[in-house]
Amino acid sequence: MMKQQRAKLFKRQTRAYAEGTVEYINHQWIFFDDETDEASSLEEYLHHEIEIYRGKRWRKGNLEENNLVRYKNEKYPLQDGEHIRIRKQLIYSFERLLDELNDDSFFQFVTTLNSLDFSIYDCIYSYNQLTFLRESSAQSGVNFFTFDNGTILCSVQHHFCYSENEHDRFEFTLNTGKRIVIEKLNSQHL
């Protein structure tokens, strides 16, 4: 799968944004998350991709200093009480794993996760053993991930063995007891 196809799959993920409103309180911009009711300083999201709801549509841009949103070559100042959404960041170790998986394993993993009504943005815990094995010619171990979609939990074990061949095995277990196992064996290690 090419980078474009990976990017398309990323864009189709649900729960990729934190939605809420911004308010100017005590000389500071505060973001109130609609889902969690948590408040945070908008400064935490500087240089992140955000979208502003204006003119009955979402306008994409990047948050810059002085609470300006750059959209193409224009800058828009935020308005008190405005509805925005901020693209969520993936957990670093989980993002590294997604980058390192070969295309077939990546596609099978993400589409299976999606079929269980989970998004890659639902990852709340990540342990990536591969980050500790980069220097090894033969790599094997297990990665652990936990996902929470707000209704159910999913635990994923990723068993891998990379030497002459690449072998990936993903075990999905929901808190309902449902289990799915997928395996991918690639005959040529890149």
Concise structural overview:
The chain has 3 helices and 13 strands, in the order H-E-E-E-E-E-E-E-E-H-H-E-E-E-E-E. The chain is an alpha+beta fold and 190 residues long.
Write the layout of secondary structure elements.
Elements (H helix, E strand, L loop, with lengths): L2 H9 L5 E9 L2 E6 L5 E3 L7 E6 L2 E8 L3 E4 L2 E4 L5 E5 L4 H9 L2 H13 L7 E5 L11 E10 L4 E10 L3 E9 L4 E8 L4
Antiparallel strand pairs: 1-2, 1-8, 2-3, 4-5, 4-8, 5-6, 6-7, 9-10, 10-11, 11-12, 12-13
Give the key terms.
single chain, 190 residues, alpha+beta, 2 domains, 8-stranded antiparallel β-sheet, 5-stranded antiparallel β-sheet, 16% helix
Secondary structure tally, helices: 3
- Which sequence of strands runs across the widest sheet? 3-2-1-8-4-5-6-7
Unreliable residue runs = none
Shape: elongated
Number of domains: 2
- The radius of gyration computed from the alpha-carbon positions, rounded to a whole number of angstroms, is 20 Å
Largest sheet: 8 strands, antiparallel
**How much helicity do the residues have?**
10-25%
End-to-end Cα distance = 14 Å
Beta-strand percent range: over 45%
| Estimated structural class | alpha+beta
Provide the residue-averaged pLDDT: 89
- Helix-strand pattern: HEEEEEEEEHHEEEEE
| Count of DSSP strands | 13
Architecture overview:
With about 190 residues, the protein is α+β, with helices and mostly antiparallel strands. The protein folds into two domains: about 15-85; about 90-185, no CATH class. The chain has helices at about 5-10, 90-100, 105-115; strands at about 15-25, 30-35, 40, 50-55, 55-65, 70, 75, 85, 125, 140-150, 155-160, 165-175, 180-185. The strands form two sheets. It has an eight-stranded antiparallel beta sheet with strand order 3-2-1-8-4-5-6-7, with no helix packed on it. Strands 9-10-11-12-13 form a five-stranded antiparallel beta sheet, with helices on one face. A hairpin with a 3-residue loop joins strand 11 and strand 12 (about 165-175). It starts with a helix and ends with a strand.
